[in-house]
Amino acid sequence: MGLQVNLQKKVNGFGLAVEWEIDNELAVLFGSSGMGKSMTLQLVAGLMKPDNGRVSLDEKVYFDSSTKTDVPPQDRPFGYVFQNLALFPHMTVIGNIMYGAPLAPKHEKMDRALEMIGAFKLTGLEGRYPHEISGGQKQRVAVARALIRRPRVLLLDEPFSALDRPLRMEMRRFLIEVKKEFNIPVIMVTHDFEEASVIANKVIIYDHGKIAQIGTPDAIRNGPVNGYVQRLVKEDLAEPCNSDNTG
Amino acid sequence: MDEAVLFSIRLSLQVAALSTALVVLTGLLLAYLLARKDFRGKELLDVLLTIPLVLPPTVTGYYLIILFGRNGFIGKHIYSLTGWSIMFTWYAAVLASYVVALPLMIKTSRAAIESVDTDLINASYTLGHSESNTAMKVILPLAKRGIVAGAVLSFARAMGEFGATLMLAGDLPGKTDTMPIAIYSLVGSGDWSKAHLMVVLLTVMSGVFLYVANRYSKRII
Q1: Mutation site, B115, B127, B131, B134, interface A, largest A CB count within 10 A
Q2: What is the value of ipTM here, to two decimals?
Q3: Which of B122, B127, B141 sits opposite A102 (nearest CB)?
Q4: Could you please report the per-residue DSSP string of B12-65?
Q5: Which positions in chain B touch A103 (Cβ < 8 Å)?
């Protein structure tokens, strides 16, 4: 049960072959850049098609190469926060958030959007455009927009990589609150082990398109399975404010 | 003002407006397909649709006669079914303007659609919006600068269309003589004062049109 993922995909000489599952927890996909973490999220969300594999949430199957099941991204209940946030520049804050609930009737859409505005501390910014608000506010708009349609999983692709340190701290606390409030599995891509260890119950370590290790942050810090993992964890501890955001 | 001059002005505007409307409707759809879809023969289709941009308009007109003339590949079927041919009617002027203006719309709109950030399109999909809804609410609004530019260029090109129109619609006074064609035949018959008036009018109209279009596109973007 929970989110079960088994993916194989080859693109331009890079091969991804991973298998993991998470329950209702906050999991982190961790590893250096270019290891297939962001690609995994795109495959799970249906924005890319795996060559082989299976994606299921509880009893519902969203992709299965053996039965040729491939639910389009529109019909997958996965909220997605992009690395560059992908806020629509031609829509206001409330316009962006309302756009996340296409199926709700108009008055309900507005009510729900206002509810999100309140819950995400965006009151007063409803009529502003994305270029008129701060980095932290943009993050909150992007998360609110992804959550308004009440997804059953939240996927975040290095959402905090462009922020400075104090703001990252604030956003981590915010994400933990979101997890508590919405009570759904959250999967976040990062290459900052400190970040992973602060927020995650489970860390899934990627190494060149494969899984190197899965475990709690403490278990990984105390018992890295190989030199690669040990180096990753150590390097990152030596430089906790890793702001490289090349995904 | 002279009745014939007024007729030509009216006809030119009518032909340019109708052909631009058709160019915008079909050109946007074609530009979207070329920008966002992969299919066999895509680049060949692009070349076919764009080639009137580089061919002499007389050559484009020649092809149109082969296709739509009374004995043309398509024209003969229309003629045998309805007894009507598009040749030497003002619709022929619309067809000629459409074919020469379409590439301008496709080129500019395709580039504009391709420049829309893929993450924004993917974000719309993950938020539950269908492809057509995403096209209407995200892609077209963000590509509108290029789309408006394409429509403006198409209208201007249609207003100035001469060669293909002459081949297809001929020079029938009071029927198919748009401003450029009327100017050509006025000069041919030595009526310089009327030709002069028409040239000044066409230049002023085109200038005003481009000025208004520039102002408007700055304001809406």
Answers
A1: B127
A2: 0.90
A3: B127
A4: HHHHHHHHHHHHHHHHHHHHHHHHH---TTHHHHHHHHHGGGTS-HHHHHHHHH
A5: 128
Taking an 8 Å cut-off on Cβ atoms, the answer to whether A90 and B142 are in contact is: yes
CATH of the domain at A50: 3.40.50.300
- pLDDT tens for each residue of A3-48: 999 999 999 889 999 999 999 999 999 988 888 999 999 999 999 9
Question: Which class is domain B14-174?
Answer: mainly alpha
What's the pTM? 0.87
To probe the interface with B, which of A81, A82, A143, A147 has the most B CB atoms within 10 Å? A82
The number of domains in chain A is 2
